[in-house]
Amino acid sequence: MSLQKRYGVRGHDFDDVFFTEDTIESAVTLGMVQAVSNKQNTSLDALKNTMAKEAKSKGGNVISSLKYGQKGTIFSFSSTQWNALGVVNWLVGIAATDEISTEMSPSVKTGRCPMCMEEIHRDARKCKHCGEVFA
Fold this sequence. Notes:
- With 135 residues, the chain is mainly beta.
- The chain folds into 2 domains: 3-100, Translation Initiation Factor IF3 (2-Layer Sandwich); 102-135, no CATH class.
- The chain has 1 helix and 9 strands; from the N terminus they run ββββαβββββ.
- The chain has one helix spanning 44-57; strands at 3-6, 9-14, 17-19, 28-37, 62-72, 80-90, 98-100, 110-112, 119-121.
- The strands form 2 sheets. It has a 7-stranded mixed sheet, with helices on one face. A two-stranded antiparallel sheet has the order 8-9.
- The longest helix has 14 residues, at 44-57.
């Protein structure tokens, strides 16, 4: 999954839907989308899959203002609940992209996690944001 830049924001494609944590001012807003899982080992991809299906059913091709994380809960068999929330948008011409490199330069001390695209230290063995373990 490579980071791309579209409409002035960074993000990536998942199941033909463009996901970004940024707001896209020029987009047509179609509503909100949310995914929740009480499974302790839920991946971000599982939440994005649910969100992409719902976005498509609303006629959207972008999920902007994406927020995701976990919180503890005492009302479930699992002590962790994973949540993802975003705004469903529709944009014309979404196919135009500029690839952004996720490779880390030796002179730079940080890079991007290939899973969640958050900034991490280049020598990290595990992402502090999503928990992805690097070989």
